[in-house]
Amino acid sequence: MKLSADHTFDIFERIEYYESLWLKPQSMFRDYNETKTNVMSLKEYIDNTPKEWILTHLDAVHDNFLFEDIGNGEVRIRLIDWEYTAMQDPHVDIAMFAVYSMYEREQVETLIDCYFTEGCPPETRMKIYAYIAMCGMLWSNWCEYKSHMGVEFGEYSLRQYRFAKDYYRIFIEAHEDRGTVLLSCREP
What we know:
By secondary structure, the chain is mainly alpha-helical. The protein has helices spanning 11-20, 32-40, 42-47, 91-100, 105-115, 122-148, 155-177; strands at 54-56, 65-71, 74-79, 86-88.
């Protein structure tokens, strides 16, 4: 629909914001500083990668998709809970759906392939890998903040952190496979 709003959702800024809310100066993860440095190094790539800038949902958790039977075997999908909606690359919603669903790598690849029925260009797939790493770091930091407030997310928190680590590595490997060099990205 090409809708727009006057505000954006900056994932890198949100990563820093949720970390700033921590009551403890250090993360529960031993290698947090290295992982954060790796994820933050993706900023240059993301900033320089072509993208569409449109109104994006940004909370593509499965609970926010309502399926309505409209008869004749047709189903209409309605998206609810527009709390985080802002201007952003719509491919972030694919990444958000993957991390919220705690998908394994094979499921992520299937999700991307289902979304891009005509085929996903390698550059777009790599951008989605970067977004998955970024979103994992974002929600991991949010979980740590909530933990300091007495709310525990158990496996969800750990899995979000794993998305940050694993998809940074997957992104780097995808670039190496394409024979490109990323000077700002560190080896995993």
